[in-house]
# Entry
Amino acid sequence: MSKLKLMPYEGLGNLRFSMSRDTIRSMLGDTFTSFKRTQEDLSPIDFYYQLGLQLSYDANERLEFIEAIPPECIPIYDNIELMGDLEGIIKRLTEIGYNSRYDKGGYFVDELGFALYAPMEKIEAVSIYRSGYYET
# Structure
C-alpha cells in the first residue's frame, strides 16, 4: 500500500499533470495494462494494478486524470486519508473549509480538484484531475 500526497490540480505523489506517458512509464515501470473505456477515448488508459493507479492522458499523451484505487493507493490531503469512512472524510474536509457536491456517483471537491467515487456510499476510488478537465 502506498500513501501518496494529493496536490490540488497538480497531481499525486511524484506524478504531475502534463507529464508525458513515456516519462511516467519510465518512472513506474512496465507492469501496466492499457485499455480504452469507450471507442471515443482519444488515448488509452494505463492501469498499474499493483500500484492501484489508472492514468488517463490527453490527445497529446500528457497526464490529465489519475484514479487511485484502494487498498494499493491511498491519497492523502492535509493529513486526511481519502479512503475509508466517507461521512468522516466529508466532515473533516468541511471542517477545514472545503465543500463537496454529489454528481453521478461521486463527491466532487471542486476547490481541490478531486472526487471521491462512492456510488454505494463506500469510497471505491479517488479521481484527481487537472485544472479545466471537466470544462472540455
